[in-house]
Amino acid sequence: GEDMAEPKIIKPKGVIAPGQAKKLNDNWTEYRASYVDSAAKKQGRNKDDRSSWWSIDDIENYIAYAKNQTDSLKYDITGIRVYLGVYGKRQGENNNGFSTMFIAPIGSKLNSEAGFSSSNFIQSGVGPLNRGSGGQEPY
Q1: 38 vs 135, which has greater pLDDT?
Q2: Which residues, at least 6 apart from 88, have a Cβ–Cβ distance to it below 8 Å?
């Protein structure tokens, strides 16, 4: 049979220790949670979502989808950006005024000096990935 080379595993830049991640999360709780939750209380809910969860299949499928979409638009993806958002009024599903997170591709125009920045990702025609699950991930 053919020898299949094992894929090379490369640790990405920016990987941090679990303890450092816990400290960052604890800092968010100490310095931000009361402000965010006080806004949620005005909407009739004790706490607002502070994280979002997507399955690995959804993330991998989204990256493949975004690459396909940006290729057809003559863009080259250089990364993924995570955005914080807030649902407006009358958004349904009890989302009125609550936080969300979504991811969108960033990159550059192929064979061009024009950039593809966070300020114009929506105009690119590639839909960001939203609708992650807040709170505990399903098992």
Answers
A1: 38
A2: 96, 97
